[in-house]
Design a protein that fits this description.
The protein is α/β, with parallel strands linked by helices. Helices cover 31% and strands 16% of the residues. It has a five-stranded mixed sheet. It starts with 15 loop residues before the first strand and ends with a helix. About 3% of the residues have low confidence.
């Protein structure tokens, strides 16, 4: 008997998940980032292995309405270093959201939750963030806020009629 039961091409197929940050039931930034990191790694799948990349795609919309608890918008600082002495720059979350949008804040939070290895950048590329509700991946989405959407294959009736005659 084979040792690789269940590790088929279908098991490794990637699913597209949609997360809307504009809904009132959306958790705060840290809780949301940890859930997205689990989906990007593929830890929710029974075939998960730390050395393989079996995660899914995540589309996050409405990033301008991100929920942050406490005074993090004014107090949380993001640092950037240019490797020159005395060139450490810092931005608070509020100015970063104004300058680059809430998607960049979400990406940095998810990046910090992913394991620090060679797969981190590949996993982070599968996170698609948008400030508004419009995005070009509507046809790819199968899971929407945790519920599976039924996808019907399109069958041309003309071909079926010709084959039956």
């Amino acid at each position: 008997m084979s040792q690789t039961i269940g590790r088929t091409r279908l098991a490794y197929s990637r699913v597209w998940h949609h997360v809307s940050l504009a809904s009132p039931t959306t958790p705060s930034l840290g809780r949301l980032a940890s859930r997205i990191a689990i989906l990007l790694q593929g830890k929710h799948k029974p075939i998960w292995d730390p050395s393989t990349d079996c995660g899914d795609y995540v589309v996050a919309t409405g990033c301008h309405d991100m929920l942050v608890t406490g005074k993090k918008k004014e107090q949380k600082l993001y640092y950037k270093q240019t490797t020159r002495p005395g060139a450490l720059k810092s931005l608070n979350m509020e100015s970063m959201m104004r300058k680059w949008g809430g998607g960049e804040v979400l990406k940095r939070a998810v990046r910090g939750m992913l394991p620090k290895n060679r797969l981190r950048d590949k996993r982070l590329e599968r996170l698609k963030v948008f400030e508004g509700e419009a995005h070009p991946y509507k046809t790819n989405l199968i899971k929407f806020d945790g519920r599976t959407r039924r996808v019907e294959p399109e069958v041309k009736t003309e071909i079926l009629k010709q084959n039956s005659i």
